[in-house]
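Long-time lurker, first post.

We've been arguing in lab meeting about whether magnesium ion would sit comfortably in this protein at all. Half the group thinks yes, half thinks no, and nobody has a model to point at. So I'm putting the question to the forum: if I give you the sequence and the SMILES, can you give me back a predicted structure of the complex? Inputs are below. Any interpretation is welcome too.
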Amino acid sequence: MALGEFELIARYFDRASPRGDVLLGVGDDAALLEVPAGQALVAATDTLVEGRHFLPGTDPDSVGHQALAVNLSDLAAMGATPAWSLLSLSLPAADEAWLEGFARGFHRLAGRYGVALVGGDTVRGPLVITVEVLGFVETALALRRRGARPGDLLFVSGWPGEAAAGLRQLLAPGSGSVDPALLRRLRYAEPRIELGRGLRGVATAAMDVSDGLLGDLARLCSASGVGAVVELDSLPLSPALKAAFALGDCERLVLQGGDDYELLFCVPAARSEAVAALATPSCPLTCIGRIETGAGVRGLRHGLEVPIAEGGYDHFRPAP
Ligand SMILES: [Mg+2]
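Top reply:
Settle the argument with this. Predicted structure of the protein with magnesium ion, as C-alpha coordinates:
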Protein backbone atom coordinates (compact mmCIF):
# COMPACT_ATOMS: atom_id res chain seq x y z
CA MET A 1 0.00 0.00 0.00
CA ALA A 2 1.22 3.49 -0.81
CA LEU A 3 0.47 4.45 2.75
CA GLY A 4 2.53 2.10 4.93
CA GLU A 5 0.75 -0.12 7.44
CA PHE A 6 2.27 1.64 10.45
CA GLU A 7 1.57 5.09 9.05
CA LEU A 8 -2.00 4.05 8.29
CA ILE A 9 -2.57 2.80 11.83
CA ALA A 10 -0.93 5.87 13.35
CA ARG A 11 -2.96 8.26 11.23
CA TYR A 12 -6.40 6.71 11.50
CA PHE A 13 -6.55 4.35 14.43
CA ASP A 14 -3.98 5.12 17.12
CA ARG A 15 -5.93 7.34 19.49
CA ALA A 16 -5.14 8.14 23.10
CA SER A 17 -7.10 5.67 25.20
CA PRO A 18 -9.99 7.19 27.13
CA ARG A 19 -9.65 4.39 29.68
CA GLY A 20 -7.45 3.84 32.71
CA ASP A 21 -7.79 0.07 32.40
CA VAL A 22 -5.73 -0.06 29.18
CA LEU A 23 -2.28 -0.80 30.58
CA LEU A 24 -0.88 -1.18 27.04
CA GLY A 25 -2.76 -0.39 23.85
CA VAL A 26 -1.86 -0.08 20.15
CA GLY A 27 1.88 -0.32 19.46
CA ASP A 28 3.08 -3.31 21.45
CA ASP A 29 2.76 -6.98 20.52
CA ALA A 30 -0.55 -7.26 22.33
CA ALA A 31 -2.76 -5.15 24.52
CA LEU A 32 -2.70 -5.43 28.29
CA LEU A 33 -6.12 -4.86 29.83
CA GLU A 34 -7.37 -4.85 33.37
CA VAL A 35 -10.71 -6.59 33.96
CA PRO A 36 -12.51 -5.29 37.09
CA ALA A 37 -12.36 -7.68 40.04
CA GLY A 38 -15.33 -10.05 40.27
CA GLN A 39 -16.42 -9.54 36.68
CA ALA A 40 -16.25 -11.90 33.72
CA LEU A 41 -14.62 -10.85 30.45
CA VAL A 42 -17.21 -10.82 27.64
CA ALA A 43 -15.90 -11.20 24.07
CA ALA A 44 -17.62 -11.02 20.70
CA THR A 45 -16.39 -10.80 17.12
CA ASP A 46 -18.04 -10.19 13.78
CA THR A 47 -16.85 -9.85 10.20
CA LEU A 48 -18.31 -7.61 7.51
CA VAL A 49 -17.57 -8.50 3.89
CA GLU A 50 -18.18 -6.00 1.11
CA GLY A 51 -20.89 -7.31 -1.20
CA ARG A 52 -22.13 -9.68 1.47
CA HIS A 53 -22.90 -7.51 4.50
CA PHE A 54 -22.85 -4.11 2.86
CA LEU A 55 -23.24 -2.95 -0.72
CA PRO A 56 -20.17 -1.84 -2.66
CA GLY A 57 -19.99 1.94 -2.51
CA THR A 58 -21.61 2.18 0.94
CA ASP A 59 -20.60 5.34 2.81
CA PRO A 60 -17.45 4.30 4.73
CA ASP A 61 -18.64 6.31 7.76
CA SER A 62 -21.57 3.91 8.03
CA VAL A 63 -19.36 0.85 7.48
CA GLY A 64 -17.14 1.99 10.36
CA HIS A 65 -20.19 2.51 12.56
CA GLN A 66 -21.77 -0.85 11.69
CA ALA A 67 -18.54 -2.84 12.12
CA LEU A 68 -18.47 -1.77 15.75
CA ALA A 69 -22.26 -1.57 16.31
CA VAL A 70 -22.96 -5.21 15.45
CA ASN A 71 -20.38 -6.29 18.03
CA LEU A 72 -21.66 -3.86 20.66
CA SER A 73 -25.11 -5.33 20.06
CA ASP A 74 -23.78 -8.77 21.02
CA LEU A 75 -22.36 -7.33 24.24
CA ALA A 76 -25.68 -5.59 24.93
CA ALA A 77 -27.38 -8.99 24.63
CA MET A 78 -25.15 -10.25 27.46
CA GLY A 79 -25.87 -7.27 29.73
CA ALA A 80 -22.19 -6.33 29.41
CA THR A 81 -20.40 -3.00 29.58
CA PRO A 82 -18.19 -2.61 26.50
CA ALA A 83 -14.62 -1.49 27.12
CA TRP A 84 -12.12 -2.46 24.42
CA SER A 85 -12.04 -3.29 20.72
CA LEU A 86 -9.67 -4.79 18.15
CA LEU A 87 -9.89 -4.12 14.42
CA SER A 88 -8.61 -6.20 11.52
CA LEU A 89 -8.88 -4.55 8.13
CA SER A 90 -8.34 -6.19 4.76
CA LEU A 91 -8.19 -3.38 2.19
CA PRO A 92 -7.86 -3.51 -1.62
CA ALA A 93 -5.86 -0.26 -1.42
CA ALA A 94 -4.96 2.37 1.14
CA ASP A 95 -7.76 4.67 -0.02
CA GLU A 96 -7.36 7.60 2.32
CA ALA A 97 -10.82 9.07 1.73
CA TRP A 98 -12.36 5.68 2.56
CA LEU A 99 -10.16 5.22 5.62
CA GLU A 100 -10.97 8.67 6.89
CA GLY A 101 -14.72 8.03 6.63
CA PHE A 102 -14.44 4.55 8.13
CA ALA A 103 -12.34 5.76 11.05
CA ARG A 104 -14.76 8.65 11.67
CA GLY A 105 -17.78 6.33 11.90
CA PHE A 106 -15.90 3.82 14.04
CA HIS A 107 -14.41 6.33 16.48
CA ARG A 108 -17.68 8.30 16.82
CA LEU A 109 -19.56 5.24 18.07
CA ALA A 110 -16.59 4.04 20.15
CA GLY A 111 -16.46 7.45 21.82
CA ARG A 112 -20.14 7.29 22.75
CA TYR A 113 -19.58 4.11 24.73
CA GLY A 114 -16.05 4.85 25.96
CA VAL A 115 -14.63 1.94 23.96
CA ALA A 116 -10.86 2.05 23.41
CA LEU A 117 -9.31 0.58 20.25
CA VAL A 118 -6.42 -1.42 21.67
CA GLY A 119 -5.03 -3.31 18.69
CA GLY A 120 -5.53 -4.64 15.22
CA ASP A 121 -4.05 -5.55 11.91
CA THR A 122 -4.17 -4.39 8.30
CA VAL A 123 -3.55 -6.46 5.19
CA ARG A 124 -4.11 -6.00 1.47
CA GLY A 125 -6.99 -8.03 0.09
CA PRO A 126 -10.72 -7.80 -0.61
CA LEU A 127 -12.59 -5.32 1.61
CA VAL A 128 -13.24 -7.30 4.80
CA ILE A 129 -13.57 -5.82 8.28
CA THR A 130 -13.34 -7.88 11.44
CA VAL A 131 -13.96 -6.25 14.79
CA GLU A 132 -13.71 -7.82 18.20
CA VAL A 133 -15.24 -6.13 21.21
CA LEU A 134 -14.39 -6.95 24.80
CA GLY A 135 -16.27 -5.88 27.88
CA PHE A 136 -17.26 -7.16 31.25
CA VAL A 137 -20.26 -8.10 33.35
CA GLU A 138 -20.83 -9.34 36.89
CA THR A 139 -20.53 -13.09 36.35
CA ALA A 140 -23.82 -14.00 38.04
CA LEU A 141 -25.78 -11.33 36.16
CA ALA A 142 -24.68 -12.07 32.58
CA LEU A 143 -27.69 -12.50 30.29
CA ARG A 144 -27.80 -15.68 28.25
CA ARG A 145 -30.02 -17.31 25.68
CA ARG A 146 -30.83 -20.14 28.02
CA GLY A 147 -32.93 -19.37 31.06
CA ALA A 148 -36.36 -18.62 29.57
CA ARG A 149 -39.16 -20.34 31.50
CA PRO A 150 -42.73 -21.24 30.51
CA GLY A 151 -45.00 -18.32 31.42
CA ASP A 152 -42.31 -15.65 30.85
CA LEU A 153 -43.40 -12.70 28.76
CA LEU A 154 -41.51 -12.19 25.52
CA PHE A 155 -40.38 -8.66 24.62
CA VAL A 156 -38.60 -7.01 21.73
CA SER A 157 -36.99 -3.57 21.75
CA GLY A 158 -37.36 -0.79 19.22
CA TRP A 159 -38.60 -1.23 15.68
CA PRO A 160 -37.57 -4.55 14.16
CA GLY A 161 -38.10 -4.72 10.40
CA GLU A 162 -37.04 -1.15 9.66
CA ALA A 163 -33.49 -2.03 8.59
CA ALA A 164 -34.74 -4.78 6.28
CA ALA A 165 -37.33 -2.35 4.91
CA GLY A 166 -34.56 0.15 4.14
CA LEU A 167 -32.58 -2.56 2.33
CA ARG A 168 -35.64 -3.65 0.37
CA GLN A 169 -36.30 -0.09 -0.77
CA LEU A 170 -32.66 0.35 -1.69
CA LEU A 171 -32.65 -2.81 -3.81
CA ALA A 172 -36.08 -2.31 -5.39
CA PRO A 173 -35.55 -2.12 -9.15
CA GLY A 174 -36.07 1.35 -10.54
CA SER A 175 -37.08 2.72 -7.17
CA GLY A 176 -35.85 6.20 -6.45
CA SER A 177 -37.69 6.51 -3.17
CA VAL A 178 -35.86 5.31 -0.11
CA ASP A 179 -37.11 6.58 3.25
CA PRO A 180 -34.02 8.16 4.86
CA ALA A 181 -35.22 7.05 8.32
CA LEU A 182 -35.37 3.40 7.19
CA LEU A 183 -32.01 3.69 5.45
CA ARG A 184 -30.50 5.11 8.60
CA ARG A 185 -31.68 2.07 10.56
CA LEU A 186 -29.89 -0.13 8.02
CA ARG A 187 -26.68 1.89 8.00
CA TYR A 188 -26.46 3.07 11.61
CA ALA A 189 -27.69 0.38 14.00
CA GLU A 190 -28.18 1.57 17.56
CA PRO A 191 -26.72 -1.03 19.94
CA ARG A 192 -29.02 -1.42 22.95
CA ILE A 193 -26.27 -1.25 25.56
CA GLU A 194 -28.25 0.65 28.23
CA LEU A 195 -31.21 -1.69 27.84
CA GLY A 196 -28.99 -4.77 28.14
CA ARG A 197 -27.46 -3.38 31.33
CA GLY A 198 -30.91 -2.61 32.70
CA LEU A 199 -32.08 -6.15 32.02
CA ARG A 200 -29.46 -7.70 34.32
CA GLY A 201 -31.39 -9.36 37.12
CA VAL A 202 -34.68 -8.71 35.28
CA ALA A 203 -34.60 -10.88 32.14
CA THR A 204 -34.36 -14.66 32.36
CA ALA A 205 -32.94 -14.91 28.82
CA ALA A 206 -31.91 -12.48 26.09
CA MET A 207 -30.28 -12.28 22.68
CA ASP A 208 -29.85 -9.68 20.01
CA VAL A 209 -31.87 -9.98 16.81
CA SER A 210 -29.52 -9.94 13.85
CA ASP A 211 -30.77 -12.67 11.52
CA GLY A 212 -34.54 -12.14 11.75
CA LEU A 213 -36.77 -12.17 14.82
CA LEU A 214 -38.41 -15.57 14.26
CA GLY A 215 -35.23 -17.45 13.46
CA ASP A 216 -33.44 -15.87 16.41
CA LEU A 217 -36.38 -16.56 18.73
CA ALA A 218 -36.23 -20.22 17.67
CA ARG A 219 -32.54 -20.23 18.71
CA LEU A 220 -33.39 -18.73 22.10
CA CYS A 221 -36.16 -21.30 22.60
CA SER A 222 -33.93 -24.18 21.69
CA ALA A 223 -31.16 -22.91 24.04
CA SER A 224 -33.74 -22.67 26.85
CA GLY A 225 -35.56 -25.92 26.03
CA VAL A 226 -38.92 -24.14 25.66
CA GLY A 227 -41.40 -23.05 23.01
CA ALA A 228 -42.87 -19.61 22.32
CA VAL A 229 -46.10 -18.03 21.15
CA VAL A 230 -45.92 -14.83 19.11
CA GLU A 231 -49.06 -12.66 19.03
CA LEU A 232 -49.02 -11.21 15.53
CA ASP A 233 -51.47 -8.47 16.56
CA SER A 234 -48.92 -7.21 19.08
CA LEU A 235 -45.94 -6.82 16.76
CA PRO A 236 -44.51 -3.29 16.83
CA LEU A 237 -45.06 -1.90 13.32
CA SER A 238 -43.32 1.45 13.10
CA PRO A 239 -45.04 4.43 11.42
CA ALA A 240 -42.26 4.49 8.78
CA LEU A 241 -42.78 0.81 8.04
CA LYS A 242 -46.57 1.16 7.77
CA ALA A 243 -46.21 4.19 5.51
CA ALA A 244 -44.04 2.25 3.07
CA PHE A 245 -45.42 -1.31 3.06
CA ALA A 246 -48.72 -3.21 3.15
CA LEU A 247 -49.60 -4.91 6.44
CA GLY A 248 -48.55 -8.41 5.33
CA ASP A 249 -45.18 -7.13 4.15
CA CYS A 250 -44.72 -5.19 7.39
CA GLU A 251 -45.25 -8.38 9.40
CA ARG A 252 -42.85 -10.33 7.22
CA LEU A 253 -40.20 -7.63 7.56
CA VAL A 254 -40.60 -7.56 11.35
CA LEU A 255 -40.53 -11.34 11.69
CA GLN A 256 -37.95 -12.27 9.07
CA GLY A 257 -35.98 -9.17 8.08
CA GLY A 258 -32.41 -9.09 9.32
CA ASP A 259 -30.00 -6.45 10.62
CA ASP A 260 -32.32 -5.27 13.41
CA TYR A 261 -29.85 -5.33 16.29
CA GLU A 262 -32.73 -5.09 18.72
CA LEU A 263 -32.90 -7.14 21.92
CA LEU A 264 -35.30 -10.04 22.32
CA PHE A 265 -35.78 -10.98 25.96
CA CYS A 266 -37.94 -12.95 28.38
CA VAL A 267 -39.20 -11.69 31.72
CA PRO A 268 -41.41 -13.29 34.40
CA ALA A 269 -44.80 -11.52 34.39
CA ALA A 270 -44.18 -10.30 37.96
CA ARG A 271 -41.25 -8.21 36.68
CA SER A 272 -43.06 -6.52 33.82
CA GLU A 273 -43.09 -3.18 35.68
CA ALA A 274 -39.30 -3.26 35.73
CA VAL A 275 -39.42 -3.62 31.94
CA ALA A 276 -41.78 -0.66 31.56
CA ALA A 277 -39.28 1.45 33.51
CA LEU A 278 -36.54 0.62 30.99
CA ALA A 279 -38.49 1.81 27.93
CA THR A 280 -37.57 5.20 26.45
CA PRO A 281 -39.06 7.20 23.54
CA SER A 282 -36.18 6.08 21.30
CA CYS A 283 -36.31 2.49 22.58
CA PRO A 284 -39.90 1.32 23.15
CA LEU A 285 -40.29 -2.20 24.55
CA THR A 286 -43.13 -4.32 23.23
CA CYS A 287 -44.53 -7.56 24.66
CA ILE A 288 -45.02 -9.76 21.59
CA GLY A 289 -45.93 -13.06 23.21
CA ARG A 290 -44.92 -15.55 25.85
CA ILE A 291 -42.81 -18.58 26.53
CA GLU A 292 -44.52 -21.95 26.84
CA THR A 293 -43.56 -25.55 27.38
CA GLY A 294 -42.65 -27.59 24.34
CA ALA A 295 -40.51 -26.54 21.42
CA GLY A 296 -40.68 -24.23 18.41
CA VAL A 297 -42.51 -20.99 17.76
CA ARG A 298 -46.28 -20.69 17.18
CA GLY A 299 -48.10 -17.69 15.79
CA LEU A 300 -51.47 -16.42 17.01
CA ARG A 301 -53.73 -13.88 15.34
CA HIS A 302 -56.86 -12.78 17.22
CA GLY A 303 -56.28 -15.81 19.44
CA LEU A 304 -56.26 -18.28 16.55
CA GLU A 305 -53.19 -20.23 15.55
CA VAL A 306 -51.77 -19.23 12.16
CA PRO A 307 -48.75 -20.66 10.36
CA ILE A 308 -45.64 -18.53 10.60
CA ALA A 309 -42.49 -19.31 8.72
CA GLU A 310 -39.28 -19.52 10.68
CA GLY A 311 -36.13 -19.15 8.75
CA GLY A 312 -34.04 -16.09 9.39
CA TYR A 313 -30.90 -15.35 7.50
CA ASP A 314 -28.31 -18.12 7.31
CA HIS A 315 -25.07 -17.50 5.43
CA PHE A 316 -24.55 -21.17 4.71
CA ARG A 317 -28.02 -22.05 3.54
CA PRO A 318 -28.26 -22.14 -0.26
CA ALA A 319 -30.42 -19.34 -1.67
CA PRO A 320 -33.93 -20.55 -2.64
MG1 LIG B 1 -25.93 -11.96 18.49
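For your lab meeting: The CA atoms of residues 21 and 34 lie 5 Å apart. The chain has a mean pLDDT of 92. Whichever side wins, do check it experimentally.
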